[in-house]
Amino acid sequence: MIKTFLLGLILTSLFYGRLFAQITMPKVFGDSMVLQREQPIPVWGQASPGTPVTGTLGAAYAKTVTGKDGKWMLRFPAAKAGGPYTLKVSGGNVAIEFKNVLIGDVWLASGQSNMEWPVKDAKDAAKEIAASNWPQIRFLVVKQRKSLTPQQDITDEKWKACDPATTGNFSAVAYYFARKVHQEQGIPVGIIQSTWGGTPVEAWTGREGLLASPITRARVLANDTLEVADFVQDSLNLVRFWDIIYHPQNNAAQEVPADTFNDAAWPQVQMPALVGDFGGPYEGIVWMRKKIGLPASFAGKALTVELGHPEMNYSLYVNGHEICKTVWSASPFHHYTVPAAMLKSGENVIALRIAMLWGGGGLNPPADSIYVTDGTTRVSLAGTWRYQKDAETPAPHIRNYQCYPAVLYNAMIHPLIPYAIKGVIWYQGEANEYAAFDYRQLFPGLIKDWRIRWTQGNFPFLYVQLANFKKIKPEPSESEWAEVREAQAMTLSQPNTGMACIIDLGEAGNIHPANKQEVGRRLTLVAGKQVYHRQGIASGPAFAGFKKEPHRIRIRFTNTGAGLTVRDGHALTGFAIAGEDKRFYWANAVIEGNEVVVSSEQVLTPTAVRYAWADNPVCNLVNSAGLPAIPFRTDSWKGITQR
Fold it and tell me: What Pfam families would the database entry show (predicted)?
């Protein structure tokens, strides 16, 4: 019996010893991946200490021995673009093999919702997806996850090539960037997409860098009081939150839209309007109802309901009949056909179930964009609507832990390091709107933090400046979004950074402008000149200095190409001028060569000039390549986000 026991113990020890000796590799590696060309290729994983590990990548060979901490690292020599290859790694009694591997350029695409925004929800989605057969463009989409501590691995994602079955779910900006790079450079392109909508730059930065800044130190230390259970509960609340957003509660969808429902006690609101007109900030479901009389000429006809551009998620009902459900769309056209059988003579009821999220909700102006029509006659939907916030179960409060410092870096960036990359493309800043002045430090801090951790030197970091957004204001005014753009422009002082200006691509009522093709193209222009050493103009006119003259100020620009011009052929707009009283007036602006002369009869002794300094500026200065001038100001007066 003793001999049998000892034999069993030995066999068990051998079994578990072999099991422990087995190598593992993080999930950033997989079939169909793209590895970075023309620099050493790191491949890493874990096994028991002292385990010999060997690997082959095509004809290349590398070997190492696992360290005392159980970690191992292979470095394959730099290789030119090509493939497909097989990567094979062996250690202990296990071999791991990845097939259909390409070598090309790998770009990390990160940021918040405008980088996350998928091809299927952007401009010309159906056409673009149908034509998206690009087997040498591969995406790895990192699943959204947050953590209080740095993680060693991502969840179970897979590398996928672009084709009509996959492309729709990929980042539109990253896809159009990758497609252009692939076409121009003739190389495979890999995109590692790590994004999360509505998140600030602090969430994507590592703890150590944030602790070094007085702006974020206290908030980082406050994370230490959190528990994993807090994250778990918030995740459960988030599941419940989205269940409510997508699925009407309390039988509301059957009762509230009905033409017999009594809404007389509901408060009133004038449409078109946004969330601020509903009694202050609110997050959850709001029902809206409007009774309209249809003319006799509409009898027996199918009608069209035109909603302009509703904000966020909504469902539409006519006389209790569901016309559309849970619509998310960046399209500027939201119109629906209502069959004649659903209508009646005289009074009819239009109902909307709107999810008011992230400060949005309601119907965007102009008033003439919302109506019912038979194709000839219109019945306006503008004017008085009834609304109710508590017709359904309230959505649970979400703490949005994904916005806390370092938590996305820990879970969605740290596990990717040190996967070799060509560089980063970044689109973020909206969530830092109210701390724009701090963004001057926080954004460069993220760039420095990532470069230190990747140990690849000052790799290219290319980013998108915020687009124009929100209502157009009739007079010059202060703007948080303008201050974010200024902080982004100032970040160009960091080495090997580049910025794509899209001040002409935004939409007043849509924080996710649809034209992601042009955003990707402009990023590619920057990459073409800065990374791939192409000749030509890569960005719009940039402020280079100014000179005060009697009654006017002369502004100098760089990046003018063959000269400055006006985009629409009309008068030059977007310039404001002020004297020492700091009161700005719209200015007269005239192009003279590579300069613009700015003046106003209301400012006899001008002191400062601002251009495109607004949430949604009306501006039209471009260079000979048609690229927009970057917003700027000549003054350094205290802004509204500076504490």
Answer: SASA (PF03629)
Q: Are 468 and 504 in contact (CB under 8 A)?
A: yes
First and final C-alpha spacing in the chain: 79
For 579, counting Cβ atoms within 10 Å of its Cβ (0-12 exposed, 13-18 middle, 19+ buried), the class is middle
The last residue of a domain, from among 321, 353, 388: 388
- The structural domain count of the chain equals 2
3-class DSSP state of 342: helix
Nearest CA-CA partner of 431 in 369, 366, 480: 480
Q: Which domain holds residue 553?
A: 542-633
> Which of 388, 420, 447 is the last residue before a domain boundary?
388
d(CA 74, CA 61): 9
Angle at 232 between CA 227 and CA 234, to 5 degrees: 100
Residue 452 dihedral angles phi and psi, to the nearest 5° = -60, -45
Residue 445, domain member (yes or no):
no
pLDDT at 181 over 50: yes
Asked if 403 and 428 count as a contact pair (C-beta separation under 8 A), the reply is: no
| Alpha carbon separation from 178 to 80, 245, 405 (Å, rounded) | 18, 34, 30
Distance between CA 323 and CA 315 in Å, rounded?
A: 8
Q: Is 535 helix (H, G, I), strand (E, B) or coil?
A: coil
Q: For residue 147, which phi and psi values (nearest 5 degrees)?
A: -155, 145
Which is more confident, 360 or 331?
A: 360
Residue 521 in domain: no
Residue 309 has pLDDT above 50, yes or no: yes
CATH at 366: 2.60.120.260
DSSP symbols for 422-445? SEEEEE--GGGGGGHHHHHHHHHH
Count Cβ atoms below 10 Å from residue 44 Cβ, excluding itself: 20
84, 15 in Cβ contact below 8 A? Answer: no
Whole-number Å distance between alpha carbons of 63 and 73: 9
Element spanning 453, H or E: helix 436-454
pLDDT digits (tens, 9 = 90+) for 409-449: 999 999 999 999 999 999 999 999 999 999 999 999 999 99
559 assigned to some structural domain: yes
Q: Of 327, 331, 306, 330, which Cα lies nearest the Cα of 315?
A: 327
CA proximity to 606, closest of 575, 578, 625, 572: 578
Report CA 438 to chain centroid distance, whole Å. 20
Per-residue pLDDT tens over the stretch 48-62: 999 999 999 999 999
Distance between CA atoms of 575 and 585, rounded to whole angstroms? 9
pLDDT at 280 over 70: no
Q: 4: Cβ–Cβ under 8 A, 6 or more apart, which residues?
A: none
**Which strand (E) or helix (H) includes residue 577?**
strand 575-578
d(CA 344, CA 484): 51
